[in-house]
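Look over this record before class:
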Amino acid sequence: MFGPPGAGKGTQSQKLMSEYNLTYISTGELLRKEIKEGTDIGKKVKEGIEGGGLADDETIVKLINKAIRNHEGSEGFLFDGFPRTYVQAYILDGLFIRLQNKITRIFILELPDEECKRRLLQRATEQDRKDDREAVIEKRLQEYHEKTLPLLEFYKNTGLLTRIDASGTTEEIFSRIKHHINEDIRKQAINVVMFGHPGAGMTTQATRLANELNLKCISTRELLQEEVKEQTPLGKQIQPYMEKGLLLPDEIVIRLIEKALMENGGNGRGYVFKGYPRTLVQAYILDGILKKKGHSITCVINLKVNYIELMKRLDERSRTERKMPYDSSATTIVARLEEHEQHSRGVLDYYREHNQVIDVDGTGEIGEVYERILDPVTRASRNLR
């Protein structure tokens, strides 16, 4: 968030932080906090800040590193007042490389100098801000025009620069900013793994989620069934495994998934994977497949249903057209559930290590379960990092 002193960066940043669950990182706020707490850094910069100067880059880096480390689980970061120079722009790039993330958008709040002065003098009266004296304001505006504005050349060809008219009410300005943020969110790729035991309702929920969020649903079972139905050479290899409800060799499944992604043309917003991955090895494979497309897993929905309810559902399914070969008896159903349990732990542990698993109660009406899924998926997809 760029803008001259008094343009409202702090106010708009706070609103964005609340609306989109971002961590607000303001160098000014960080420095004021250090001064208030009387830390060594605070004592060092106090005189310079009150005189309208800027803290040195080493001090700023230390403060931002500290702020990022304290909020590594955040859905994103909003920087206010940083970077202010070419050196700091490279520093920020380095921080994002370390985080394996990137800048989503750069806002420039535009407001005439005279209006900035008026706002700051009014703030000085209302909040007793010593750094809002007229002479200090003049110096800060000069610093902005001479050092910060030229920095925009650093981002000139990135396509990230967005100019915002900072005049009008707080809500009017916020609405202008939100328009662009929501545009970014709509472009975000979403890749969801729908996970759960047989009978947990994965197919129903995966299909509904894909339709609502404009995603392509990739069900390994459906891909396999199609191959078997067409009696392709691959289908003939697959059939014995499906009849027994056993895992297929990874080489076969990889080819089917890559084929499904290729048929989608890579133009979709993302995918809902149902029935894959079922092993830790397959979780690594899926990461690799998505990486080739410039995608990654957004979240993993783990539908939790107790064994008694699962047995009941699978028994009911065995008397419908949707029945699976292993639905034929209690013995085969139990074997299938145990086989899933054996392999699923490693998969879920893998995704939990990356804070990607969202546990959802899979019992109740279909619509109720879906509402429990949609909200966390929507929040995960809004991650702007």
Summary: The chain is about 55% helix and 10% strand. Residues 1 and 9 are 7 Å apart (CA to CA).
